[in-house]
Amino acid sequence: MRYVYMANLETDPDGGMLVTFADVPEAITHGETLSEALSNAREALGLALRGIVQEGRATPEPLAVDGVAVAVDAEEAIKLAVIEAFREAGISKRELARRLNKSENEARRILDPDHPSKLSQLQDAMQVLGKTIVISVLQAA
Hints:
Layout: E1 4-11, E2 17-21, E3 28-31, H1 34-54, E4 68-71, H2 74-89, H3 93-100, H4 104-110, H5 119-128
Antiparallel strand pairs: 1-2, 1-4, 2-3
């Protein structure tokens, strides 16, 4: 699971820069400067991906190769990865709670893309789902 998508940047006729993502058409934003456009792109990408998983759809594969690489915020990426791993596991929320030795409400919060979770909770969830989190650091755009 990789959460780095290529952004298309173009000059907006009304001024500033327009940012779109071929792989995530729901993520569209704008910025007066390149720096602002890229900052807004990161936020728009995260919001779009959270919306996609809330609708029950799988997060799109980052297939585009042209453009500027934009990474989803690290906390959001880990949360999205846990949700994807849970769906791949094909288990119930009750079963996840049992494996985590937590209440079903706690498991639901871990799987809620809008609910903040501690990194340790997300790591525990990934472990019981048979996954591990690996961190990569890339040069900023």
